[in-house]
Amino acid sequence: MTDTTSSQRRRTRIAGENRRLFLRLGVAAIVMFGFGFLLVPFYEQICAATGINNLLQPDTVSADNTQVDRSRTVLVQFDANLHDLPWRFQPQQRSVRVHPGELVHVAYDVANTRAVAITGQAVPSYGPQVAGQYFRKLDCFCFTQQTLAPGEQRMMPLVFVLDPKLPAEVTTITLSYTFFEVQGRSAARREDGGKS
Questions:
Q1: Whole-number mean pLDDT of the chain?
Q2: Is 193 helix (H, G, I), strand (E, B) or coil?
Q3: Which of 43, 62, 94, 138 is most buried, by CB atoms within 10 Å?
Q4: Confidence of residue 24 (pLDDT cuts 50, 70, 90)
Q5: Residue 39: is its pLDDT beyond 50?
């Protein structure tokens, strides 16, 4: 009988320890879930306070707050290239003179010369390379892939601001876009007859 009693006591003690462990683990899981849930707003507040990786204020807000430096003029030249893509692609104007901090609107013209829909992606490059750090694109066709129907022509806008912190020795910037065909998207469109 003593073996049965001690066995029951041991089972009762183990069951009590298991309940306490389960309760502790449940509380730890709730605390971790709460911490994960609150991490995003906490991160956004830190970013807003420090100005680092600010997700709450897009470039348009910072562009509205820049001061235009009327004492300087920078020549921005536009270049358009195609990489094995049967399109016509060119800027509507070859260059523009800009004051750093000034909001600038320009556009490029593009046309699909093929009889099938084609998807392309524009990739920018800057000359001199350091200018890329100070070139703030607020609206750009390069942000997304562009699909043009057979024979379609389109005007694509570009809105930008040059950061007034642009080094004084940079007086000319060349913004060059190269359009590449997005192979998977264009091939899929050709296979299903351009319906997707």
A1: 83
A2: coil
A3: 138
A4: very high
A5: yes
What are the pLDDT digits (tens) for 95-111? 999 999 999 999 999 99
**Which three-class secondary structure string do you get for 31-60?**
HHHHHHHHHHHHHHHHHHHHCCCCCCCCHH
> Which has the closest alpha carbon to 167: 83, 79, 72?
72
CA 158 to chain centre: 15
Q: How far apart are CA 57 and CA 55, in angstroms?
A: 6
- Residue 30 backbone dihedrals phi, psi, to 5 degrees: -65, -40
| DSSP assignment string, 53-110 | S-SSS-HHHHHHTPPP-TT--EEEEEEEEEES--EEEEESSSEEEE-TT-EEEEEEEE
pLDDT at 156: 95
Architecture of domain 62-191: Sandwich (2.60)
